[in-house]
Amino acid sequence: MAKTKKLRVGVIGAGSIAQACHLPGYAKNDHVELVAFADPVPERHKEMGKLYGDLKGYAHFKDMLSNENLDVVSVCTPNKYHCAAAIAALEARCHVLCEKPIATTLKEADRMMAAAKKARKKLMIGFTHRLFTGPIACRELLKEKAIGKPFMIRVRFAHGGPYPGWAKSDWFYKQDDAAGGAMLDMGIHAIDLCLWLFGPIVGVSAKAGALVKRIEVDDNAVMILEFKNGALGYIEVGWTSKPGFSGIEIYGTEASLICDYAKGLQRCGGKASAGRDSSREWKMIDRNPTNGGWSTEIGHWIDVVRGEERLTMTGKAGRAALQVALAAYKSSDTGKRVTIKP
User: Fold this and answer.
1) Which among 140, 182, 189, 334 has most CB atoms closer than 10 A?
2) Do residues 123 and 98 lie in contact, with contact meaning Cβ atoms separated by under 8 Å?
3) Ramachandran bin of 293, using left for φ above 0, alpha for ψ from -120 to 50, beta for the remaining angles
4) With 70 as the cut, is the pLDDT of residue 2 above it?
5) DSSP letter at 308?
């Protein structure tokens, strides 16, 4: 039997997410050959040389796309460059995995989706939380009506911030590069999970601000969501948090799902009472609900490219999450509820 030709891969942007997920993910995948990367920072070229040997480095992604015959490209740049890099890769006839958010404006997202359609190539957005075992189980349990009719979802994602410690530079804190702070960075994951689990969002009220850090963008934000099906949602995100709850809570007419990313996914039944007759019946479903994620993202993506998995983290999903995030910023700026037309 003839061997299947390996997919030739390039990565645009060699910062933290590329180094933690994309580059090592491609390097260990048997179906691909990691060929090249593009990054304007000279020090990263030396760093990548030490880690990946003969991996070819380019200062600009246009040069990489012109000189290398690539099949697949990851876009791991600051947010402002997502659109230009993704469209260039699609026009070079590559399948594209773009980090979240899909872009910084809805017009950019539309252009990216149009480029993918014209090139007849796949565009996937890196909504990694969909690959955690906990959220996957929550979705299945909702399909099975394991908690009755769901009417409320709460998502809280908070930590001390991407820089220093995680990010290679402070671009996350620059309005021009990032186009938003915690509400766009962590919030886009939370919004996508809400859309994935509960369906379309038709209204949002939000408040975002720099409460602690002296940065150009928001370091904390809260959002109240209204879903098309009548349910409500609450999102809290922050870049100034000490350790605490991080995860998803889903409340239904028969029971609740508490997906604590640190402690596990549990189903809670019983009775919540205003009196003294409350009772709780806990059932552990997944002790490690953050299994998956980055460790499986590239493998999943390559299976999508090869037709072995269905593409679900689409450009359309990326646009839908971005639309809610931008509406949330508008609500924060105006102090008014914003209607969303899915």
Assistant:
1) 182
2) yes
3) left
4) no
5) S
Phi and psi at residue 268, to the nearest 5°: -120, 120
Considering the segment(s) 7-125 as one domain, its CATH architecture is: 3-Layer(aba) Sandwich (3.40)
Predicted local confidence at residue 49, as pLDDT: 82
Is the bond preceding residue 101 a cis peptide, omega within 30 degrees? Answer: yes
Q: Please give the distance of CA 205 from its chain centroid, rounded to a whole number.
A: 21
pTM reported for the whole predicted model: 0.95
Question: What SS3 class is residue 28?
Answer: coil
pLDDT at 162 over 60: yes
297 Cβ partners below 8 Å, 6+ apart?
Answer: 21, 25, 126, 128, 131
Q: At a CB cut-off of 8 Å and minimum separation 6, what does 4 contact?
A: 31
Tell me the chain's radius of gyration from C-alpha atoms: 21
What is 129-290+322-339's CATH number? 3.30.360.10
For 259, residues 6+ apart whose C-beta sits below 8 A from its C-beta are 134, 135, 137, 138, 247, 248, 249, 250, 265, 289
- Domain ranges for the chain: 7-125, 129-290+322-339
Interacting residues of 39 by C-beta distance below 8 A, sequence separation 6+: 12, 13, 14, 15, 45, 48, 57, 58, 59
Query: What 3-state DSSP class applies to 207?
Result: strand
3-state SS class at 85: helix
